[in-house]
Amino acid sequence: MTESRTADRELRAEISIDATPAQVWDALTDLSRMPARSAELISMVPLKRGGLRVGQWYLGLNRRKAIVWPTRNVVKQVDPERALAWHTATSGATWIYELEANDGGTRLVQRRPVPRLTYISKAFAPLFLGGGAPHCDELEQHMNEGLVALKAEVEQG
């Protein structure tokens, strides 16, 4: 197995959107719309009062084929029109969105580093997701597809 095919590698997707960072931010931070842009996410439900903010907890409900599983997510960064990030305690992954004004539009980068893969993730992925590295390959493809969907949503108004 090569370095690029490990389960703990950083995944990355990037797109240019013909809209302002404010317009992209508004769509990106409407987490009720996120399942429409994700092949696995069914819902993201806030578990505390106060809306999207650093420290907010979200229950993620995910599905791949017949397998459904929950995740616990903690928002780590909310920098309006610049960056949004949450840590998925269940897997050890951090989901990061970075926005940058670019030639009259917005460059949006999505990254998923895994500082430390959890024991739960190490056991769950091989048993239920077809293996850690193959699942990461799928996730990276889904990230690209999700950004394309977000682009279409924002550009169509």
Q: Can you walk through the features of this model?
A:
The chain has 157 residues and is α+β, with helices and mostly antiparallel strands. The protein has a single domain, classed as Alpha-D-Glucose-1,6-Bisphosphate, Chain A, domain 4. Helix content is 27%, strand content 37%. The protein is built from 3 helices and 7 strands; from the N terminus they run E-H-E-E-E-E-E-E-H-H. Strand 3 and strand 4 form a beta hairpin. Helix 1 crosses helix 3.
In short:
This protein is an alpha+beta fold.
* CATH T-level fold name: Alpha-D-Glucose-1,6-Bisphosphate, Chain A, domain 4
* SSE topology string: EHEEEEEEHH
Task: Sketch the major β-sheet.
Answer: 7 strands, antiparallel
Tally of distinct domains: 1
Cα radius of gyration in angstroms? 15 Å
Mean pLDDT, as a whole number?
A: 89
Low-confidence stretches: none
Topology:
Blueprint: E1 11-17, H1 21-28, E2 41-46, E3 57-64, E4 67-79, E5 83-88, E6 93-102, E7 105-112, H2 119-128, H3 132-155
Antiparallel strand pairs: 1-7, 2-3, 3-4, 4-5, 5-6, 6-7
Helix pairs in contact: 1-3
Defining key terms:
single chain, alpha+beta, Alpha-D-Glucose-1,6-Bisphosphate, Chain A, domain 4, seven-stranded antiparallel β-sheet, 3 helices, 7 strands
